[in-house]
Amino acid sequence: MNEEVRVDVGGISLPGHVVVPPQAEGVVAFVHGSGSSRHSPRNRQVADELNEAGLATLLFDLLTLEEELDRNNVFDIELLAERLVGVTAWLEAQDDLAGFPIGYFGASTGAAAALWAAGVAGVDVRAIVSRGGRPDLASGRLGAVRAPTLLIVGGYDEVVLDLNLAAQRELRCENELRIVPEATHLFEEPGALRMVAEFARDWFTSHFTPVSPI
């Protein structure tokens, strides 16, 4: 399955793109940052890596074109998190994805929305990966997150690194901070995004795999 879809959330129809590889073992929803969209080349590169590893992916727009015109919406983390909660319910209702463990991959402000949504009661998320995220924008909600969370930050992205270190102290779930050496905020350096993709792949596959009883 590799097709464009419409994700219906609370009376709003959001455009998205779903890829379900053969024998998929989970699905990851990509939560883009401000100024980006489902067409983000960086998110698409990571999604390709996940698809090759047998994970389904959904890249979607958090807001409609009309909503994006109001810049307040772009940075309304609570609104974006509510939208993601609805998208999660949509994933659970799809025949091709029913029963799959769900993960979130959030970038920049999208990471804050992913963490906020993961802490909402009733939301079943198995794992979260943040790329250059702003978890500080979900401060106060981080303690409610139960899904294992991987924070990935560029070594030269000093401000965001400090914000992630502070957020890590708020998290009560399994969590890890990984630094991509000599990478800046957008991971544009040679090999940097590839490293992000590999970190994300390993985090999702390890946490989507059921633990065998001893």
UniProtKB/TrEMBL annotation:
Family note: Belongs to the AB hydrolase superfamily.
SUPFAM superfamilies named among the record's database cross-references: alpha/beta-Hydrolases
Keywords noted in UniProt: Hydrolase, Transferase
Protein name: Putative phosphoribosyl transferase
PANTHER family reported for this sequence: DIENELACTONE HYDROLASE DOMAIN-CONTAINING PROTEIN-RELATED, POLYKETIDE TRANSFERASE AF380
Domain of life: Bacteria
InterPro entries in UniProt: AB_hydrolase_fold, FrsA_esterase
GO molecular function: carboxylic ester hydrolase activity; transferase activity
